[in-house]
């Protein structure tokens, strides 16, 4: 994991002091509300319906146990004793006090953390695969590249006042676990014929009101040119992105208006001036950053004998066996596995964890995963590098803290935005819908039988809950002042990224859960062999689903 | 006389910014609009004070940069402080066109942008009369170092650390 040197530390320390000064001037009435807005946003501070909210950056989802303990501490001292993991691998505090935020930031800085650019119209936290470094299908570890991008984007002098927010994701594997095609820039690590690393560059993806899958603008960008190329893209966007209408201000709209061909030409024309310039990366910097992401000291284990031990325990213990099925994934190092700790037990807002749970997570990480913790874009936690021999013990401990719900990748592992309970933009509540679905589908056998199923819920078209890319998406809509829900089918966040299509007229809240059940019935009746929900939908299309829910063909 | 923050010092601002639609030019040192600069050349040649130019942050700077380089001052106007286009234009002037004169930020800017503006090549800043420039100038130094190359630092931190 990356460790700050004196430069990194000084920068976050100076940032805390800068924001402390700004907050004091604001509280003294020397800065107007309008002027303070981007300053606080760029330090992670939103003001929402009930209270301010502070979003803390978790660069590419990587945390140390020391950091997680600090977060537990902060949540007790400055908040209500819990935090929320977001869909961009970050962490939110829901009830901080404005005047205490500088102190919170100072506490964060003491463990090499910050909230810089977690919100506002600037370059946000770069995200990636939660299985980076251990994924079997990995082409190259994306984390060093994410860190290089983090440093480049942090307090970038030219791009602090962009037309709109700007998100970058890096995918280092065959399969996409970072939804990188739904980011303003998606970078796919690739190797050319000579085995040299580079990036395929995608631009203009995003969710929100106008969901778009990113277009490829460059097949192969040699790695040393990463930052100059990013500068070129951002400069074109900064100068030509729409600033009159915030709903048309994302880069996706510019790419669409110009066409991706024209956009590419403009970027390449800008890049001609920057290419091979001083910001060109060199081997020593790439090597320096890579040196922080080395493998831990794996023990050499007899894989076969550990595997048979684990299977024996699983045979005796149904709960453990389910958890192995859903929450444990193979990794490339023999004898080791990655464990997902579910933050989606029924009855808790998806992604919420208490201070005690955070401490438990830190303890588990120290004991089983070399002190490292990862957050996922599905709002769960991953402990990678767990020796298989420790799995049973880890499961037992995680269970006592409510972190072992065996529902990863199932219908109950849903993404859900805060919705009408907390968010002033909402058309409808979303957390009660999530809870009703979890309560309805509490029969684990049935849930397992349904297999991989992504269900996402947003309370309005801003799409914080990623409803467009759920296999089943639920969107809160406003019908004459009442809360209604539109259902979409067929979305996907993977390499075959697709946006869901609307099933039919929106439904009342009471009807949502029953309709979901009907959709699942259609799936179960029509699936072939091991086919997952999405594949069945892709094969049989919308009609049967629609008929079942609305009763008539239309 | 109005004040100006230039190169970290508070000084008198001897320049008058002329509105883009003005047809008469006042006495004194003038910052004229780009159109005036390009189109009223003969009239302006008669002018007895110094002449500089102001441009909008969304200017296609590539099309006109060569014609502006003789100006002792290029002022870039921010229509709103949150409109960041002027940051790019200043960097282009400094880094691509190696402009050595004064680049001045005018219009809507806030003190908290000073550090970033300076990094992009601005060295002079006009604020409304309500702003205490001596106090505001502290924000020029909000950070002691930076990761990126910019107009003030041609070597990225990764080559210096
Ligand atoms: C309750 C407070 C919240 C408000 C007011 C809010 C507001 C918004 C708005 C207005 C957008 C649309 C932005 C655009 O189209 O450019 C948006 C997008 C988004 N929000 Fe939220 N949000 C909130 C909470 C959250 C939470 C808790 C999460 C994480 C779970 C989240 C994750 C996202 C994501 C991932 C996007 C989509 C970005 C994209 O288009 O690529 N939001 N939010
Ligand atoms: S999707 Fe809408 S309701 Fe949900 S958090 Fe975002 S803005 Fe609020």
Word description of this protein:
The complex is a heterodimer of chains A (554) and B (161). By secondary structure, chain A is α+β, with helices and mostly antiparallel strands. Chain A has 18 helices and 21 strands. Chain A folds into 3 domains: 6-109, Sulfite Reductase Hemoprotein, domain 2 (Alpha-Beta Complex), CATH 3.90.480.20; 134-290, Sulfite Reductase Hemoprotein, domain 1, CATH 3.30.413.10; 415-550, 2-Layer Sandwich (Sulfite Reductase Hemoprotein, domain 1), CATH 3.30.413.10. In chain A, strand 8 (185-191) and strand 9 form a beta hairpin. Chain B has 161 residues and is an alpha/beta fold. Chain B has a single domain (3-160), classed as 3-Layer(aba) Sandwich (Rossmann fold), CATH 3.40.50. An 8-stranded mixed β-sheet of chain B has the order 2-1-8-7-6-5-4-3. Chain B is globular and about 55 Å long. The relative contact order of chain B is 0.15. The chains are: A alpha+beta (554), B alpha/beta (161). Chain A binds chain B through residues 5, 7, 10-11, 14-15, 18, 22, 31, 35, 38-39, 121, 151-152, 154-162, 235, 238-239, 243, 273, 277-279, 281-282, 285, 288, and chain B through 58, 81-85, 87-89, 91, 96, 110, 112-113, 115-116, 119-120, 142-150, 154-159, 161. Bound molecules: protoporphyrin IX containing FE (HEM) and iron/sulfur cluster (SF4). Protoporphyrin IX containing FE (HEM) binds next to loops of chain A.
């Amino acid at each position: 994991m990356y460790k700050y040197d004196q430069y990194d530390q000084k920068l976050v320390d100076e940032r805390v002091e800068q924001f402390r000064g700004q907050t004091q001037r604001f509280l003294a009435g020397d800065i107007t509300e309008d002027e303070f807005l981007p300053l606080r946003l760029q330090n992670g501070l939103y003001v929402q319906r009930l209270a301010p909210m502070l979003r803390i950056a978790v660069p590419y989802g990587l945390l140390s146990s020391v950091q997680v303990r600090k977060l537990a501490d902060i949540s007790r001292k400055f908040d209500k004793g819990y935090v929320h993991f977001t869909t961009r691998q970050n962490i939110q505090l829901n009830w901080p006090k404005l005047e205490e935020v500088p102190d919170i930031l100072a506490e964060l800085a003491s463990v090499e953390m910050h909230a810089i650019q977690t919100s506002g119209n600037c370059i946000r936290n770069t995200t990636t695969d939660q299985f980076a470094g251990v994924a079997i299908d990995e082409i190259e570890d994306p984390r060093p590249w994410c860190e290089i991008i983090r440093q480049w984007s942090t307090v970038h002098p030219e791009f602090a006042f962009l037309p709109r927010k700007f998100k970058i994701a890096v995918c280092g594997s065959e399969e996409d676990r970072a939804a990188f095609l739904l980011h303003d820039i998606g970078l796919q690590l690739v190797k050319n014929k000579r085995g040299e690393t580079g990036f395929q560059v995608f631009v203009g993806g995003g969710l929100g009101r106008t969901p778009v899958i990113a277009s490829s603008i460059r097949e192969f960008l040699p790695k040393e040119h990463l930052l100059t190329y990013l500068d070129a893209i951002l400069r074109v966007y900064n100068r030509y992105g729409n600033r009159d209408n915030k709903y048309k201000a994302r880069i996706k709209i510019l790419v669409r208006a110009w066409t991706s061909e024209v956009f590419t030409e403009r970027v390449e024309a800008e890049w001609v001036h920057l290419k091979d310039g001083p910001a060109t990366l060199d081997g020593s910097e790439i090597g320096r950053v890579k040196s922080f992401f080395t493998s831990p000291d794996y023990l050499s284990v007899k894989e076969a004998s550990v595997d048979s031990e684990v299977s024996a325990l699983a045979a005796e213990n149904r709960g453990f066996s389910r958890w192995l099925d859903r929450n444990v994934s193979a990794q490339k190092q023999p004898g080791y596995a990655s464990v997902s700790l579910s933050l989606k037990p029924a009855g808790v807002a998806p992604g919420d964890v208490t201070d005690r749970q955070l401490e438990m997570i830190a303890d588990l990480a120290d004991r089983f995963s070399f002190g490292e913790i990862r957050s996922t874009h599905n709002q769960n936690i991953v402990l990678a590098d767990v020796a298989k021999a420790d799995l049973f013990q880890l499961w037992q401990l995680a269970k006592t803290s409510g972190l072992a719900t065996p529902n990863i990748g199932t219908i109950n592992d849903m993404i859900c935005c805060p919705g009408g309970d907390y968010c002033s933009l909402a058309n409808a509540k979303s957390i009660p819908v999530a809870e009703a679905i979890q309560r309805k589908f509490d029969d684990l056998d049935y849930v397992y039988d349904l297999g991989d199923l992504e269900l996402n819920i947003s309370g309005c078209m801003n799409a914080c809950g990623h409803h467009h890319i759920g296999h089943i998406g639920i969107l809160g809509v406003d019908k004459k002042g009442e809360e209604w829900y539109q259902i979409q089918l067929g979305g996907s966040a993977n390499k075959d990224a697709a946006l869901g299509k609307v099933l039919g007229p929106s439904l009342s809240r009471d009807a949502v859960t029953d309709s979901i059940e009907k959709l699942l019935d259609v799936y179960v009746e029509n699936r072939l062999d091991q086919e997952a929900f999405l594949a069945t939908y892709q094969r049989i299309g919308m009609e049967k689903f629609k008929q079942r829910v609305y009763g008539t063909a239309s | 006389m109005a004040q100006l923050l230039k190169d970290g010092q508070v000084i008198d601002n001897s320049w008058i910014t002329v509105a883009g639609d003005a047809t008469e030019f006042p006495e004194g040192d003038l910052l004229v609009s780009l159109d005036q600069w390009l189109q009223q050349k003969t009239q302006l040649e008669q002018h007895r004070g110094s002449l500089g130019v102001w441009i909008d942050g969304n200017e296609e700077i590539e099309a006109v940069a060569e014609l502006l380089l003789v100006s002792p001052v290029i002022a870039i106007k921010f229509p709103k402080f949150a409109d960041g286009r002027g940051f790019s234009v200043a960097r282009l002037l400094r880094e691509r066109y190696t402009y050595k004169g004064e680049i001045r930020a005018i219009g809507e800017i806030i003190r908290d942008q000073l550090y970033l503006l300076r990094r992009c090549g601005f060295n002079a800043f006009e604020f409304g009369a309500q702003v205490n420039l001596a106090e505001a100038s502290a924000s020029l130094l909000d950070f002691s170092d930076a990761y990126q190359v910019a107009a003030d630092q041609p070597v990225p931190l990764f080559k210096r650390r």
